[in-house]
Amino acid sequence: MNEHYGVEPNAFESASDLHLLLNHFGPYCGRFVAELPSSWREQVRRHIERLPVVEAARAKRRLQLAEQCRSLVPLTKGVQQETQDDWLQLFQAAKRQESELRGPIVARSRNDGYQTVETLDLPLTAEERIPGTVDQYRRVCATLVRINPELNLVDPYLDLCKEWHACVVRSLLKLAISSGNCLFLRMWALLPKQSNVTALQAALDAIVRAVGRPRNGVKLFLLTDGRRDKMHKRYIFGIHGGNELEYGFQHFRDGRPVWVSPMPKAKVTEMLSCFVYRKNDYVLEDTFTG
After folding, report:
1. Residue 287 Cα to chain centre, angstroms
2. Theoretical Cys-Cys bridge with 12: which of 18, 39, 82, 254, CB 3.0 to 4.6 Å?
3. What is the reported pLDDT for 8?
4. For residue 28, what pLDDT is reported?
5. Contact 154, 275 (CB under 8 A)
6. In what order do the strands lie in the sheet with 31-34?
7. How confident is the model at residue 231, as a pLDDT?
8. Residues of the chain whose pLDDT is less than 50?
9. CB burial string 51-65: b at 16+ within 10 A, e below
10. One domain for residues 104 and 134
């Protein structure tokens, strides 16, 4: 998950090609197109201009939709992008600096054995079983954290007084703040049976002191659920997609495996409605602000 693919700007030969290609990417798929080079979008637009008028209009609309859906992301490391004349050489240079870069997906005209739009074979979503450790949570959530201006984290058993929970929240919050895009972090959990209000507020304050505070702050909401049968899985989401986790957000010292998958768009909409817009029947017991 959270994979970035190198795609040659002229990898498509028609609007249908571009549509087929971009359908494999975005927050709801769990993989993204790396903007390689940094002028990738402009190069794609120039390639679109070579298509017939109607084809070009369709291709422009599809590219615009990919931009709106945050399917395209800049590389996260400082790659010297403009020094290679050939795109494939540029990709290979970038991959040496960013080993997680996948691909390449190249133009058919290369005929050199790499994947093309025609031969591309990717699953609908990039689900993954990961070790339940801080580094792995950070890896699979990194792009999601960077592209959402507001982050929402739901974990029924989240307890910031416990270091194995707090270390994950610190890591994700630090990443969100460093992106310069995150304005607000909200967290929801069930009210513990033995709740220490003073300790919880102190734990939240310690996290904010350690890594910083988004412009609009951090909030922790504690809820009660009479049936206790609705909050099971864990979620991290925003308006631009989300991830669903089998367990977490907690660090398992034994690296216990955790299943992670992208949330479908309908699920993201449902979770935004349920928690952010409070269309639910949970009882809000307490709120903590950092």
Report:
1. 26
2. 18
3. 95
4. 95
5. yes
6. 72-73, 31-34, 3-7, 101-105
7. 63
8. none
9. beeebbebbbebbee
10. no
β-bridge partners, 120: none
CA–CA dist 159, 174 (Å, integer): 18
In the sheet with 257-262, reading across from the earlier edge strand, the strands are 128-131, 257-262, 241-245, 234-238, 150-154, 184-190, 218-224, 283-289
Residue 165: both structure tokens together:
């929970």
Residue 119 lies in a domain: no
* Same domain membership, residue 272 and residue 151: yes
Number of domains in the chain: 2
The verdict on 89 and 183 lying in the same domain is no
Q: What is the CATH number of the domain that holds 138?
A: 3.30.870.10
Residue 66, pLDDT score: 97
Could you tell me which of 105, 97, 101, 143 has the C-alpha nearest to residue 122? 105
User: CA-based diameter of the chain, in Å?
Assistant: 67
* Enclosing domain of residue 212: 128-289
**HEC string for 64-96:** HHHHHCCCEECCCCCCCCCCCCCHHHHHHHHHH
Query: pLDDT (tens digit, 9 = 90+) per residue, 235-248?
Result: 999 999 999 998 87
Domain for residue 116, yes or no? no
* Contact between 98 and 75 (Cβ < 8 Å): yes
What pLDDT is stored for residue 39 in this prediction?
Answer: 92
